[in-house]
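Lecture notes, continued. The same structure-token format from the folding unit now serves as the input rather than the output. Read the line below as a description of shape only.
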């Protein structure tokens, strides 16, 4: 029954979110749409169940809200709507990962804190995830509030992400009220609903109050002395260039597109007295200013000649190129002066416009023939629009997907932009206007966040005029051939909080979560520190005579020296890479062999130490040694920690006992003997600090991902597979290129070398981290701080983050740099 209730809750939320995405008055549903799912999450007591429900919720969300996206992608790529939709649903948890982050953090916080911190932590996880993981359409829950002219004004404080956070908190408050009301049973009273509902109503009231005041201030009459330009947006409604190219040829397509735009532009100048012309993205589908042929050079001169004759500047979508590659661009032409400047699209659409070099290759393009070859631009740029009589307005151009990212509009506002110029080709939304409508709403949020008006032209709709409140003053329809004229003034708005702080909500959410995690770790360690050390009944030791201790110590030193020599060889000769089997044999002989030999010898002498009556009993596999407690006078920790930490035993008669006891828990052994009431002295000054360090390390809680097989085996294999794949594509032209060229043996040998290289590299990095961790903890012990265990735990977690997140991040940056 609980499973069906969970599915019903997920389905209910998906339906509500689907209605919410339709716009209109449905924006109200954003404050309650997540409540059914939150009630389901409240019943999930285990992490796997919460994870499963979150994954199902992401699939249901994509099916309800982005059902059209799969069909649009299928039509664009030619794979078909059904295939593309299935792929989209399968990858829904990766496309909408905020559901998973929200559910997992919510459950973690709920186990440790009350409902308030649980709601705050989960909300922060949602917005932080959306900030860290860029989504194809840049969607967030806050965009659904766009139809409310009042509430959307809050976006100038925290952007669409800020509205998302407020929606999540209201949903949490309502869900909590329902849980509290149900939990009262026969004692149900409306009073239990007052506090959570008052919080929800208060959030909405504050949003409405701020929005009303802000909107009224923005709509106040403005000074009339600011220079104003008439910008004419030309929507030619010519789509599917590829189909036209097959029908009339590449030159014929360009000829038809230009002639249509010329005619509409002359109409705009004649009938609308346009001061500036604005054409859509890639309207001139070749490189302007860098012609590939004489025909291209003639067309370039023709466009400049049209601008000179018309006497008005033109902004149009084209291509640009340099030594690094080709770019989707917007060119600014001025009459009589030529090319004023070019803006290069910063965020080309992944896989359709841009493919990183590390992923690119003949095999990928054979599977995905539609993949583009454009490179990303280098960020926002502000350029002027100037009329013939000298009026000027500074604008920041955004091309298509650029307006999904708040940072470009914000950077433009900081650089002095007075308006936003958007050009887009939304023709792939022709059969799915809901997608074009979402794109328009997302673009409008850039105007709310920066308080810059916006003119936005598309190939076939929706071209629009957007004011500084986000209001769409006028727009064309899908499939129209039209000219839309807007007035743009040279006014400098006061910087909003978003312009001053940037897209800060996601970053603040990530910082809050890190602080909360640090607080939880600190509280846990404080509790552990306050607990008196427990006396362990049985302690594992290794009984070693001086010769055997010397042998094992020598083997450990040999393994360490071998690893250092290999690192030095890699650093000075091969650039931290293993490039031959001889290096692997060196690693096996100089590092693995002595380390394994030391381990085998230690296993042979391992014993279990415990106290039985008045005896210290040491049980080995084939013998039992009994040492009277009264004969033990003192324990002395080893001054030289080889082969590890341990103690020597001084007998009452004066000499040292024949056997030394190697142990990772020397202090635990001392506590075991002290618990019997037998006076046992502790000798050695500095050595005691080493014993404390060893005990501190042994007491630290070990995680499964601290196991060497996980760290240097599985994790190294994962990274090696990524790097090996890139190597195969670059060196052999495909993922299995070496296999096809030289056979399975060479392919597997190459993979083994890459795996070993990463494993050894991770060992070296782990050794550096270990030195840093032990140094900090040793300082804490030397300072006699009571929180040495807390310091250890904090440093261990920092080491894990550096190892499991830092290394992949470094690899990703290397791959991006290569791409």
């Amino acid at each position: 029954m609980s499973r069906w209730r969970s599915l019903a809750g997920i389905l209910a939320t998906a339906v509500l979110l689907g209605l919410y995405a339709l716009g209109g008055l449905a924006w109200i549903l954003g404050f309650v749409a997540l409540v059914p799912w939150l009630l389901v999450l409240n019943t999930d007591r285990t992490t796997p169940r919460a994870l499963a429900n979150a994954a199902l919720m992401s699939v249901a969300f994509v099916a309800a809200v982005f059902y059209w996206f799969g069909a649009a992608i299928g039509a664009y790529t030619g794979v078909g709507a059904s295939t593309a939709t299935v792929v989209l649903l399968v990858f829904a948890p990766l496309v909408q990962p905020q559901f998973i982050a929200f559910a997992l953090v919510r459950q973690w916080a709920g186990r440790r804190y009350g409902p308030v911190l649980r709601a705050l932590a989960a909300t922060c996880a949602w917005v932080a995830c959306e900030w860290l993981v860029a989504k194809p359409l840049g969607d967030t829950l806050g965009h659904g509030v766009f139809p409310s002219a009042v509430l959307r004004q809050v976006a100038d404080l925290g952007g669409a992400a800020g509205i998302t956070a407020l929606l999540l908190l209201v949903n949490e408050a309502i869900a909590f009220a329902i849980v509290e009301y149900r939990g009262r049973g026969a004692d149900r009273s409306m009073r239990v609903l007052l506090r959570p509902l008052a919080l929800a109503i208060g959030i909405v009231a504050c949003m409405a109050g701020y929005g009303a005041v802000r909107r009224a201030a923005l709509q106040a009459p403005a000074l009339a002395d600011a220079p104003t330009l008439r910008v004419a947006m030309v929507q030619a409604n010519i789509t599917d260039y590829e189909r036209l190219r097959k029908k009339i040829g590449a030159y014929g397509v360009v000829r038809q597109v230009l002639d249509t735009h010329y005619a509409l532009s002359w109409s705009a100048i004649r009938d609308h007295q346009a001061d500036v012309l604005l054409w859509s993205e890639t309207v001139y589908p070749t490189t302007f200013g860098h012609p590939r042929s004489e025909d291209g050079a003639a067309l370039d001169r023709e466009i400049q000649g049209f601008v000179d004759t018309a006497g008005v500047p033109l902004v149009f979508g084209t291509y640009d190129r340099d030594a690094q590659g080709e770019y989707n661009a917007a060119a600014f032409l001025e009459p009589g002066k030529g090319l004023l400047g070019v803006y290069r699209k910063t965020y080309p659409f992944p896989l359709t416009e841009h493919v990183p070099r590390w992923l690119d290759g003949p095999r990928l393009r054979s599977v995905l023939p539609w993949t583009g070859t454009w490179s990303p631009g280098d960020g926002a740029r502000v350029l002027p629009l100037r009329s013939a009589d000298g009026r000027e307005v500074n604008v920041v151009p955004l091309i298509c997907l650029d307006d999904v990212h708040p940072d470009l509009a914000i950077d433009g506002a900081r650089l002095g932009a007075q308006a936003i110029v958007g050009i887009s080709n939304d023709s792939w939304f022709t059969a799915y206007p809901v997608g074009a409508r979402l794109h328009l709403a997302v673009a409008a949020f850039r105007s709310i966040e920066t308080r810059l008006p916006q003119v936005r032209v598309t190939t076939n709709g929706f071209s629009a005029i957007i004011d500084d409140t986000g209001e769409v003053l006028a727009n064309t329809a899908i499939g129209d051939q039209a000219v839309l004229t807007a007035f743009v003034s040279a006014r400098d708005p006061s910087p909003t909080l978003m312009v001053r702080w940037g897209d800060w909500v996601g970053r603040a959410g990530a910082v809050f979560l890190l602080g909360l995690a640090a607080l939880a770790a600190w509280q846990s360690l404080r509790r552990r520190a306050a607990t008196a050390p427990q006396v362990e009944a049985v302690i594992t030791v290794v009984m070693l005579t001086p010769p055997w201790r010397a042998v094992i110590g020598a083997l450990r030193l040999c393994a360490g020296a071998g690893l250092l020599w290999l690192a030095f060889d890699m650093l000075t000769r091969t650039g931290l890479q293993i490039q031959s089997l001889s290096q692997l044999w060196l690693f096996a002989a100089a590092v693995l062999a002595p380390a394994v030999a030391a381990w085998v010898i230690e296993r042979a002498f391992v014993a279990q130490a415990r106290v039985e009556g008045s005896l210290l009993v040491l049980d080995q596999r084939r013998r039992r040694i009994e040492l009277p407690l009264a004969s033990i006078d003192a324990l002395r920790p080893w001054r030289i920690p080889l082969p590890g930490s341990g103690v020597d035993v001084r007998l009452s008669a004066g000499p040292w006992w024949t056997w030394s006891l190697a142990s990772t828990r020397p202090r635990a052994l001392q506590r075991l003997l002290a618990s019997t009431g037998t006076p046992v002295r502790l000798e050695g000054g500095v050595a005691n600090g080493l014993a404390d360090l060893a005990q501190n390390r042994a007491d630290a809680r070990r995680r499964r991902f601290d196991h060497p097989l996980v760290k240097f085996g599985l994790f190294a294999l994962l990274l090696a597979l990524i790097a090996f794949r890139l190597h195969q594509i670059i060196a052999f032209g495909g993922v299995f290129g070496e296999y096809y060229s030289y056979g399975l043996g060479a392919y597997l040998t190459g993979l083994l070398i890459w795996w070993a290289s990463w494993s050894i590299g991770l060992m070296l990095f782990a050794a550096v981290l270990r030195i840093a961790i032990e140094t900090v903890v040793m300082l804490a012990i030397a300072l006699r701080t009571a929180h040495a265990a807390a310091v250890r735990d904090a440093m261990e977690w920092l080491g894990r983050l550096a190892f499991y997140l830092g290394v992949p991040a470094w690899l990703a940056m290397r791959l991006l740099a290569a791409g």
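Point for the exam: Residues 274 and 372 are 35 Å apart (CA to CA).
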